[in-house]
Amino acid sequence: MSERQRASTGQPRERQRDGWDGVWGRSPHGRQGVSERQRDAGQAAVELALALPIVVMVLLALVQVAVVTRDRMAMELAAREGARAAAVSANPGTAARLAAERVTTLRPLDIEVDVDATMVTVRVSYTSTTDIAIIGGALPDVELSARSSMVLEPPAP
Questions:
Q1: Cα separation of 109 and 86, whole Å?
Q2: Three-state SS for 121?
């Protein structure tokens, strides 16, 4: 009796040795034509599609934090070098500005020099723009500043 005749008479179909019904494409568990490995791969793909945007956002946020940290370290270096140059110069304001701008490529720098009887203090400020893709638009720009003080030394004659 053919498979078609069995279907019309209501008799049960014969199963292949591996448990699959070759004619109708159904597994012994009623799932149609999809193995367990294929279902797991599909589930993994869906989970990846749901998690990937979050992972990318976290990674971009970490990159933005690293960029701001780099700028902060550059501000500290600029303030320290400016104070060092101002402490030994006859013209502390100019010396501090030139030294601070020489050690970093960040622009524009706002450099303030305060000289009293024994100390020179240099304050360097910079606005770090948050321009990393996707994350940059969600975060405000960061105002960075650093301050360094050194004892005035008389300039060499």
A1: 16
A2: strand
Number of domains the chain is built from: 1
Per-residue pLDDT, 154: 76
The angle subtended at Cα 71 by Cα 100 and Cα 147, nearest 5°, is: 50
User: At CA 100, angle to CA 114 and CA 143, rounded to 5?
Assistant: 80
Range of the domain at 126: 36-151
Q: Which of 47, 51, 52, 105 is nearest to 75 (CA)?
A: 105
CA 151/CA 6 separation, integer angstroms: 103
pLDDT tens string 26-77: 555 555 666 777 777 788 889 999 999 999 999 999 999 999 999 999 999 9
Q: Is residue 50 part of a domain?
A: yes
Residue 140: beta bridge partners?
Answer: none
Contact predicate 95/119, CB 8 Å? no
pLDDT tens column, 75-124: 999 999 999 999 999 999 999 999 999 999 999 999 999 999 899 999 99
Which DSSP letter does residue 109 get? -
Query: Does any domain span residue 2?
Result: no
Residue 100: inside a domain, yes or no?
Answer: yes
72, 146 in Cβ contact below 8 A? Answer: yes
